[in-house]
Design brief:
Number of helices: 15
Strand order of the largest sheet: 3-2-1-4-5-6-14-15
Number of strands: 15
CATH topology of the largest domain: Rossmann fold
Largest sheet: 8 strands, mixed
Radius of gyration: 21 Å
Helix content: 25-40%
Mean pLDDT: 97
Strand content: 15-25%
Structural class: alpha/beta
């Protein structure tokens, strides 16, 4: 199979779909790899590294899309990239389609086979290709939130950990999954007062066992969210409904009742955000203010630490890239129900139920689509 790796074009996105080490594995398996020039240059992965690994370097993105049987990316394809996709071509990347009807329409029109990292599952019920970026984003959320609390950024002028004689900041994390747990770890490391709110008692018990009594765990109700968000200096939105649009757990009224200069970091923004006042931002302009509350809603947070993120992502994606290349997408999906859960769009049909439901589109189950 010929695998193509274009340079990412989303604003301030420097990650790359395959590292030279991943390319070498694919070449070792008998596949060809085409990489757009300078695809990894920003993070120290230069063309000569890819050439040494066995890749062929091309100048333009259309050369990648025109020749590749499978395109491996990081972020969702931008409109111009969607228009380069063709019938039956495999796209393997993050998609986040539920809050993005335009991307979904373009992928359907292209006739491609779009497999989303974020809905591939594993035997433990986890999301193995979302996990590494969730780990990064959870840790970054505290880093970004601490920065936004500084006066110059519009924040309250609060140091997360306080100092002797001055209270630490109150950090409230909505969701106790991978993002939430990593955010809690970082915030507690900075000696903030941390509360995690989740609707799963079992998950709250696991977090308490992991972090001890210094972590405050609260069962999720509307009232609990209202009360804790109102007192928070920093709120981290870490809610995830796999493949579906994130529910708005923080209403505009709740935001209006927050303290002046407090901060919301909505990590769930890729799936629409968990705050009614959230809207996507970029690393170029990461924040905006609503009701004197600073909102940080960057859709590709891990892109700020692109080198770490690229290697972490490749560690998780490479086995799946190899099996798709070795077997062909159809056989690979039929053989592995967890990989099959990643199929979101198949030759003009939506193949993932939550995406179809949220966008009001017809749904054709993956096993039916693959049976054609």
């Amino acid at each position: 199979m010929l695998i193509g790796v274009p340079k990412e074009i989303k604003t301030h996105e420097y990650r790359v779909g395959l590292t030279p080490s991943s390319v070498r594995e694919l070449v070792h398996h008998g596949h060809e790899v085409v990489v757009q020039t300078a695809a990894g240059h920003a993070i120290g992965l230069d063309d000569e590294h890819y050439i040494a690994a066995g890749a062929r370097i091309v100048e333009a993105p259309d050369e990648v899309f025109a020749t590749a049987d499978m395109v491996v990316k990081v972020k969702e394809p931008q409109p111009g990239e969607c228009q380069m996709l063709r019938e039956g071509q495999v796209l393997f990347t993050y998609l986040h389609l539920a809050p993005d009807p335009e991307q979904t329409r373009l992928l359907l029109e292209s006739g491609c086979v779009a497999i989303a990292y974020e809905t591939v599952t594993d035997d433990a019920g986890g999301l193995p290709l979302l996990t590494p970026m969730s780990e990064v984003a959870g840790r970054m959320a505290i880093q970004a939130g601490a920065h936004c609390l500084e006066m110059e950024q519009g924040g309250r002028g609060t140091l997360l950990g306080g100092v002797p004689g001055v209270a630490a900041a109150d950090v409230v994390i909505l969701g106790g999954g991978v993002v939430g747990a990593n955010a809690a770890r970082m915030a507690m490391g900075l000696e903030a007062r941390v509360t995690v709110i989740d609707k799963s008692l079992r998950r709250l018990q696991e977090l308490e066992m992991q972090f001890g009594a210094t972590l405050n765990t609260i069962f999720s109700t509307v009232r609990a969210i209202e009360e804790h968000v109102a007192e928070a200096d920093l709120v981290v939105g870490a809610v995830l409904v796999p493949g579906a649009e994130t529910p708005n757990l923080i209403t505009r009224e709740m935001v209006a009742n927050m303290k002046r200069g407090s901060v919301i970091v909505d990590v769930a923004i890729d799936q629409g955000g968990c705050t009614e006042t959230s809207r996507p931002t970029t690393h170029a302009e990461p924040t905006y203010v609503v009701d004197e509350v600073v909102h940080y809603c960057v859709t590709n947070m891990p892109g700020a630490v692109s080198r770490t993120s690229t290697f972490a992502l490749n560690n998780a994606t490479l086995p799946f890239v190899l099996v798709l290349a070795d077997k062909g997408y159809k056989q690979a999906l039929l053989d592995d129900p967890h990989l099959c859960n990643g199929l979101n769009v198949h030759r003009g049909s939506v193949a993932y139920e939550a995406v179809a439901r949220d966008l009001g589109l017809p749904w054709r189950p993956a096993h039916e689509a693959l049976g054609d």
